[in-house]
Design goal:
The protein has about 750 residues and is mostly helical. It has a domain at about 1-95 and about 120-180. About 95% of the residues lie in helices and about 0% in strands. The chain contains nine helices and no strands. It has helices at about 10-40, 50-95, 100-110, 115-200, 205-330, 335-400, 405-430, 435-545, 550-755. Helix 5 packs antiparallel against helix 8, helix 6 (about 335-400) packs parallel to helix 8 and helix 7 runs antiparallel to helix 8 (about 435-545). The longest helix is centred in the last third of the chain and has 207 residues, at about 550-755.
Amino acid sequence: MTILATTFDDRATLEKAIDACSSRVRSLQERMRSGSDDDVAEGEAVSMEDVAQEVKKLVGLRKELQVWKLKEEEEEEAEAARLAAEKEKQTDRDDNQNGDDTEDSWVRVGEKEPESPEQDVDVVADAAAEAEGALTQRATRLAAWLVAADARLTALETDVVKMERTKRAVAFLKQQEEATKAVKAAQPVEEAIAKTLPVVSEENPKVKEANAQKSVVQEAAKAAEATASVIDVKLKRHVQEVATLTAELVAERAKAEKATRANQQLQKSEQSLRDAQIKLETSMTTLTEANAELLAKLQTARDTDVSLRDELVKVQATLTELQEDQDSKETHLGKLWKTIEDLQLVNKQLTDKNAELDAETKAMRAETEKILAEHAGHEGKNDEAAAELAAAKAELEMSLTATLALKAEVEELRAHGATLANDLRVAESKSSQSEERILALEKELEAAKQSAEDALAGQGALRTESQDAERAHAQEKYQLTARIAELESSEAERNGKADDLKAELEKAKASVKTVRADMQESERQLRAMKDEVVRLTLSSEKAVDQASGNDSQLKKLKADLDSRKTELAAMTAQIDVLTSQRTNAEAQLQDLRGVAATQEEMLKKARSSLLEANEELKDARAHTLKWKNSAQAAKTLMNAKIADAESASKQLKKARAEAATANSTRSQLTNSLETREKKISKTKQELAAVRERLTKALEAAEAESDQMKQTHVTQVAQLRGSSQQAIALLDGQVQSYRMMLVILLPILIAVIFYAITK
């Protein structure tokens, strides 16, 4: 297995770098959202490239974290292989030393250490590594999904900014339209001027020039009206497009909210998985603590065995010393045979007692070995349970898409609970052999009960998670139906807006008709005034004809003429006022021309923005088609999920029935456990009595051993004194014998030579 090189020397620094990078990504996303909401300038906004680079960095750091995890797993595997090799060597040594005595076997048993906690640690580490790997993969998927969602949101936000710009342009165009309306409001004044101008046209030549300028102003006003009508049509189109874009933006925001809700649900599921992992870790810690307590008790028993062996070795050493003293003194001291026989009898009694103690210790060791074997078996079962729980955790993540797998896991857990119950029965049947075995089995029963409760809790968690999955499916169904309803409502709103726009067009047509009618009415009034002027001229001519004949009528006509002159002066004053107004109107017209030029530029910009908006509308329509297709696919998926949920509900009913049967069997097991606990309490009482007897016997044996030691010491002292006296006598005899030999040897040699010579 090849592992890539890492850029960090320590895992802690790598995790800190991951946290810092994730915080930077979150800050950039928040800046993007805040920039889109507050309409920040394009130079200050955060770009998608920065976010993508940070996300790439985060993914690379997480890959390096996986590399660190793989390294740790390889180190753990190497450590496990080393421990297995050491274990095989130890077993080979044990096989080679089968012919040794009981004391060496006891030493091996004392030196042999259980390896089950290390195996538990390896299993827990593997399970944690698998869970962390799955969580990191899921986190990377979520990060990629969030990046895509952020990209969509940024695109939508740019669309919103563009739409706001178009709204501003529309507002400016509306202002220009109001200016054109003001120009239209100035037209009645000009018409009134036109009514009064024909009366004075014969007398004042400047009026003709005013009429010409007035016609020019009217033509400019008509051109402005035409441009305003074109602008109105374009504005209506813009309003329609803006309405469609706003509807699509609302739909996209609803989709983004749904995505955030799904992200929150995923975070909740991850939190539940973390809580389950914490519970499993707490259960493993309790199991390791119980195992440590058992190992401590076994160590105390071994220490007591070692102390007993030391005492036995000391007693045997003293016995060997006594035997050596006896062997050395048997050749010289025949008188001490009786004391030696007494000592041999005492030695035989001590050896018998030692043999009994050895037998008892062997039995106790056999029981402890059985307990250790059972404990190892239970630890193996606990390891299997931990592995199964880890597998259940891995399958929990897959349970969001397949509830049938969850039910299969529930059935497996029930089968495992049944096996655990059978193991408990076997352990309870074996628990009545000895007190230490009962204590160990009680703790193992508690551990097994805890594991069974954990398994039941896991079943409950699986049920709750299956219910949560069903709720999530129902919520997704509700969300899809709500989405469909929103799409239908948006279509209805579009239709309503189209109807409103049609009504506004009809109103505009009606207003145009009313304006035309007003213009026709003003023309009719002008014609009537012209007719009145013609009539007045005719009447004045008649009056002049009659003036030749009637002086009185002449006077009247003079007076009439004076009044006409005054009226003419007033009209000239009005004409001067109107000329000043005309100059002002010309200045306003020039201003309006400049405004029209700016409007033309704005119209060009609006056309370009409209083209962009049309392209964006095409893209949005394509997106809506995609969303419709996805909604149809989601409908089909929801139907399939509903069918799966119905089948799952049926299977849940079956599982509930099986759970009821399991509860009944559990009640029966609890009753049997209560009866067995009563038996165990009785055996405990009997064992307490046996303990008291054993303590009394041990105290008596210790007292006897103390007395025997004292008698041995006194006898040894007496034997030493008597032996020293005998040795002194023997030394005196030996010296006398030597003297006799020194004296007798030359005599014997002389006798021998004498005999030889003869």
